[in-house]
Amino acid sequence: MGGILHLQTEYFKSLTGTSITHVPFRGAGPAEVAVTAGQVDMLEDALPSMLPFVKAGKLVPIVLTAPARVKELPDVPTFAEVGLPALNHMSHYGILGPKGLPKDVVDTVNAAVRRAVNEPNVRQRFEDSGAVVVASSPQEFALDIKELYTSLRKVVAERHLKLE
Q1: Could you say which DSSP state residue 87 is in?
Q2: Domain range holding 12?
Q3: Of 68, 79, 144, 156, which has the fewest beta carbons less than 10 angstroms from its beta carbon?
Q4: Residue 94: which of 76, 68, 80, 114 has the closest Cα?
Q5: In this predicted model, what pLDDT tens digit does every residue of 56-101 receive, in sequence order?
Q6: Is residue 163 assigned to a domain?
Q7: Which of 151, 113, 153 is nearest to 134 (CA)?
């Protein structure tokens, strides 16, 4: 309740007028099991955790939040392709530090991460899982987080969402 995927689904509902009942789970694993067992009709989740279910034929991908189609699912359109570009916010994985972290430390960690994810074998492992590698600068990552926060905060206010 109140997690990024819940808020993304609420955003989808607000943009499309779709009626979907949110069923909270304690993580992606139990939610994926509920969908594959027919207890819940759909879920929104990060592609790396869903891809094994898709490859096994237990989940059917409908649309992606990716900025472009992914290699692992070339026939699955993005939200932008189906007319909902505002929903193209993928799950993020990033490294964050405390406020006031010295710039030289931030730059050193960022450079090391960029080198690592640009190693061909590392990049391939990420991409094979359905992940999209974006080795951005600290400033770009901060802006991306701010934009996502702003759009989802608006959804929370418009839909009068409250934690229970």
Answers
A1: G
A2: 4-158
A3: 68
A4: 114
A5: 999 999 998 888 888 889 999 999 999 988 887 777 778 999 999 9
A6: no
A7: 113
